[in-house]
Amino acid sequence: MASVTQKMTINLWARVFNITRVRHYRASVIALNSRGYSVLPPPRDAEEKAVLDKMLRVDHAGEFGANRIYAGQMAVLGRTHLGPLIQQMWDQEKIHLRKFDEILAENRVRPTALLPLWNVAGFLLGASTALLGKEGAMACTVAVEESISEHYNSQIRALMEADPERYKDLLQLIKEFRDDEIEHHDTGLEHDAESVPGYWLLKSAIQFGCKAAIYASERI
Amino acid sequence: MSCVACAVCVACAVCVACAVCVACAVCDVDGRYISEHVRIADLFRTVVADMAAVLRGLQAVRVLRGFCRGELVGVSVHKYRSAHRGVHSCGLLYSENSTSVSSSVHQHPQAQAPEQDPSSMTSEQVGPQPNTSYANQNGEQSEDYETEDQLQARILNAALEFVLQHGWSAEAIAAGAETLGLSSASSEMFPNGAGDLVLHFVVKCNNQLVQILAEQHKRVQLGEAEPKKTAEFLREAVETRLRMLVPYIDTWPQAMSILLLPHNIPESLKHLSTLVDDIWYYAGDRSTDMNWYTRRATLTGLYNTTELVMLQDTSVDFQDTWAFLDNRIRDIVNMANTAKQVQSTGEAVVQGLVGAAVTLKNLTGINQKR
Questions:
Q1: Most exposed: A27, A69, B95, B167, by fewest CB within 10 Å?
Q2: ipTM of the complex
Q3: Of the candidates A141, A176, A140, the residue with the CA atom closest to the CA atom of residue A155
Q4: Cross-chain residue pair B287–A105, CB shorter than 8 Å
Q5: Closest by alpha carbon to B259, among B268, B271, B247?
Q6: Contact list, A13 vs chain B (CB under 8 Å)
């Protein structure tokens, strides 16, 4: 392509409508155990499969949404001094999404039908909060990452209550991802998230939206 | 004559004969005990035989009801045996006390035979090698224990032979049950009747298809076979699955209408969606975005329309149907290619527009740094 401006505008266009971005990631396997490929135990019966399916579906939707939020933030703030930081957090989310794609494909889990909705809504959320300034973007990050880590914690609790030995690998994976999300949350706080005007209102609204998204993705 | 209350009479409920004081060894009133001995022996024998027959019938009903409720067969047999022990002891006591040897010989086998019959009858009902003895009913399943589901599957499999005669109906199930040696009332085990038969057949065919696809998949992974292209794979999978309908093609419209009944729709849709999911999985689809939904929707449409075409196809070996299938698959492939082309054209157009905008900005001098 001729110029950097063109490239960036086309990337923006592509990102807005997610034309070229979402292909299925058949990238390298992230080996978390000696076997290197399987994180879930084969389900004993249809009930267990349904429960695990729900969990994985909502986790996949969550990572997908987080991806799109960071994409929206990068679209607005990519050229500011926060660009590299947001890009780094985005790359970590991409790794999470890739891992969940693999798990869904391997275990034949149905992805949520609301993915196009989260695609657009996530991008819009990221872009609109970034338009409030750097602090707005950080506040959005803090709110979303807090929701996600709370959600992962409740999943960890549920798996621990059920059978920690059986779900050892899955627990390890979710714990690792939760730690990453908490790190993002802390990064957001460090970068003056709380100084945005209407912080509590913004945070509560975003967290309510996240809870609704989690509820919907589990079922649809 | 006075009827001494004999212990035996308490055990066997039917012992009306006790009123005429027959089984009572102690009773020796008026010498009529001996003189009427022979006649009353006959009476007692027929009474015992009738009672055995009645009890056998009762036991059959109890067993069938037990099946319906999923009870262990052995439990009802046990109840029967305890009741029957009374009859047997009646006969034994009588045979002990009687002086006519022939009647006692008669009595024994008579009393024994009813005892043998129920076990052989339950053996016919439950399966080739049933283990319904009380000793084994400790909750663990022995190898020859058959569950209710297995029994129902066997009956429905047998019923499939009679579909050409009776159509997809409860009569076919009854006929199938009879070939297994069960009574035709076994069709009452299936409250949904024809629906159960059709759904069983659908599940059976789907499982067969999945087995075939898994076999092929394994061979490809071992390197013994070449992986097929998606379009060809789909075509062969759909054709294989539809060919399983060929023996029943004349009655299949009736079966489809049964599947469309409101109470059958959820289950038939579930089977259709698992079929389509399985076919795509073995075709290599590992998508986790909207493609998951669009691919399955197109394959569902493809399968349903081809099935409908097959119903009214009169060509040799359904050649017209397979030609229709080929054409539809080609359409789908064309659509996918067209979609990709539209996308790349759109991108090119966007590039062009952006280039034009930048040129304009340059021409009007907006881009210059001041």
A1: A27
A2: 0.79
A3: A176
A4: yes
A5: B268
A6: 350, 354
pLDDT attached to residue B129 = 55
Tally of CB atoms within 10 A around B139? 6
Sequence letter at residue A90: W
Q: Which residues in chain A are contacts of B277 at CB distance < 8 A? A: 108
Q: How many CA atoms lie within 13 A of B9 on its CB side?
A: 15
Placement of tokens 């997908």 in the chain: A64
- DSSP states of B78-91 as a string? HHHHHHHHHHHHHH
pTM of the model: 0.67
Which amino acid appears at position B232 of this protein? E
Reading the block at residue B196, the tokens are 């159960």
Query: Which token pair is B225?
Result: 């076979």
- What CA–CA distance (Å, rounded) separates B197 from B248? 13
Convert the pLDDT of each residue in B232-288 to its tens digit. 999 999 999 999 999 999 999 999 999 999 999 999 999 999 999 999 999 999 999
Task: Please tell me the distance in Å from B46's CA to the nearest CA on chain A.
Answer: 55
Q: Minimal Cα distance from B273: which residue of A?
A: A110
The one-letter amino acid at B330 = R
Kindly determine whether residue B286 and residue A110, on different chains, have CB atoms separated by under 8 Å. no
User: Is B347 in Cβ contact with A111 (below 8 Å)?
Assistant: no
Element at B24 (helix H, strand E): none
Which residue type does B35 have?
A: S
pLDDT per residue over B187-228, tens digit each?
Answer: 888 998 899 999 999 999 999 999 999 999 999 989 888 888
d(CA B306, CA B328): 9
E strands in A24-165: none
Contact (Cβ atoms closer than 8 angstroms) between residue B228 and residue B236: yes
Nearest to A10 among B281, B290, B351 (CB): B351
Inspect the interface and report whether the beta carbons of B293 and A113 lie closer than 8 Å.
yes
C-beta of residue B163 within 8 angstroms of C-beta of residue B172: yes
CA atoms of A196 and A132, how far apart (whole Å): 8
Instruction: Answer yes or no: are the C-beta atoms of A142 and A174 closer than 8 Å.
Output: no
Nearest by CB to A116, which of B281, B290, B358?
A: B290
| Test the B interface: residue of A102, A110, A220 with most B CBs within 10 Å | A110
Q: Is A219 helix (H, G, I), strand (E, B) or coil?
A: helix
| DSSP letters spanning A86-107 | HHHHHHHHHHHHHHHHHHHHHH
> In whole angstroms, what separates CA A102 from the centre of its chain?
15
Put simply, the answer to whether B355 touches A6 (Cβ < 8 Å) is: yes
Instruction: Say if the Cβ atoms of A22 and B351 lie within 8 Å.
Output: no
